[in-house]
Amino acid sequence: MSTFTLDMDRFKVKTVEQMDLVARKLALEAYRRVILKTPVKTGRARGNWQCTISTPAAGTVDDVDPSGAKAMSAIQARVAAWKAVSGVSIILINNLPYISRLEHGSSTQAPNGMVGITVAELGGIVQEAV
User: Count of domains in the chain?
Assistant: First the structure.
């Protein structure tokens, strides 16, 4: 095998690894922002953000998590297990019945929601991740 072929193979491996790393950073930062933007009364809404690979989580979480630390810890573990370049989706979901109302401004703590604002910030998040 020629040196050029070996160099290209190394480049391909390194590029895939870098793409995976950037995607993981992007997911973590976006999810962190959603959690921290989630209004806190009891901490139930923040504690119900769930991260899954491939299939959305069903049901809700019974814990309260005012700081969002428990949810973020679980998300970090899930993102670490995710291979972004595999083409399999990573999903952030909150199944509380009132999460949609919170997203659409029912709380004075988050009058503009959490997810929509974070999606609007994605360009900047991508730049940070890269």
Answer: 1
